Amino acid sequence: MSEVFSYESLVHAVSGAVGSVTAMTVFFPLDTARLRLQVDENRKAKSTPAILAEIVKEEGLLAPYRGWFPVICSLCCSNFVYFYCFHCLKASWLKGKQSAPSTDLIIGIAAGVVNVLVTTPLWVVNTRLKLQGSKFHNEDIHPTNYSGILDAFVQIIRDEGIAALWNGTFPSLLLVLNPAIQFMIYEGLKRQLRRGIPKELSSLEVFVIGAIAKAIATTVTYPLQTIQSILRFGQYNNTSTEKSKLLSSLRTIKCLLVNRVRKYGMLGLFKGLEAKLLQTVLTAALMFLLYEKIASCTFRVMGLSNNHYKRR
C-alpha cells in the first residue's frame, strides 16, 4: 500500500506532467497540422510547413495554437495519471528488483487502461474545442459552438448523452499499446546505456532514446490514432445495429479503416504521419528530458538520488 501512495510516485507524476505540458506547448502547431489531416479528409496531404502556412493564411496567425488550453489541461491530467500509475505499479510489482522489457510492457498497458478510462472525456472535449472555428475542406463536417471546457461538457451531455464523452474509448484502449511500447523501449534502452551501473544519463542520451521510443510506438499504432481522432470529433455517423457495444465498436473501427483504404489506399491510413512523427517524437524526447531532470533534481534535494536510480 505504501508504494501506491508514495512520495516517489508523486514526484514522477508531477515531473512527467510538467515535462509533457512544456514540450507540447513548444511543438503544439505540429499537432494542429496532424489533427487537421486526420479529420478533414478533403484536405490534401502536404508537408507540415505547407499545412501550417495554409492554416495561418486561411484562419490567422494564432490558428495553430487554437485549443491550446484544453489540450494542455487534458495532457497534464493524462500524464499525471499515467506516470503515477506506471511508477506505483512498477514499485509494487518489482519491490526493488531489476525490471525487464516484458514487465515494463505489462505495467505500461495497465497504467494506460486506467489513464484512458479516467481522462477520455477531457480528450473528447479538447478535440472538439481544438477543431472549433476551423475552415474545413470537407462540407459534411458540422461546425460546433462551445464557449469553453465546461460549456462543451454540458452541450455534449445534453445533445449526445453522457456516453458521448467516452467516444473513441475502444480504439483508445487499443492504443494503450502506444505509451506501453514507448516506455518499454525507453526503459530498455536506458538500462542498456547504464549497463547495470546506477548513473544519471546525459541530456543528449535521454533526448535520443526518448525520440527513438516514441517514433517506433507512433508508427506502429498510427492508423488507430486516426480512427480515434475521427470518433472523438463526433462527426462519424455510426449505422451499426449491433446490440453489443464491443461488437459495435469493432465494426465501427473496421468500417472506418476499410473506407479509408478504399478512398486513399493503404497510405491513407498514414495521412498526417509526417506531422505526427515530427510533433510527437520531438515532444516526447523533450518531455522525457525534462521529466528526468526534474525528477533527478527533486530526488537529489531529498537526498534519495542513489536509492532512486537503483530502484529504476
From TrEMBL:
GO CC annotation terms, alphabetical: peroxisomal membrane
Transmembrane regions: 67-85, 105-125, 170-189
GO MF terms held by the record: ADP transmembrane transporter activity; AMP transmembrane transporter activity; ATP transmembrane transporter activity; coenzyme A transmembrane transporter activity; FAD transmembrane transporter activity; FMN transmembrane transporter activity; NAD transmembrane transporter activity
Topological category with respect to the lipid bilayer: Multi-pass membrane protein
Alphabetized Pfam families for the sequence: Mito_carr
Compartments in which it is found: Membrane
Alphabetic keyword roster: Membrane, Repeat, Transmembrane, Transmembrane helix, Transport
Main location per the UniProt record: membrane
Solcar repeat extents: 7-92, 99-192, 201-297
Annotated family: Belongs to the mitochondrial carrier (TC 2.A.29) family.
PANTHER family cross-referenced by the UniProt entry: PEROXISOMAL MEMBRANE PROTEIN PMP34, PEROXISOMAL MEMBRANE PROTEIN PMP34-RELATED
Name of the protein in its database record: Solute carrier family 25 member 17
Source species: Maylandia zebra (zebra mbuna)
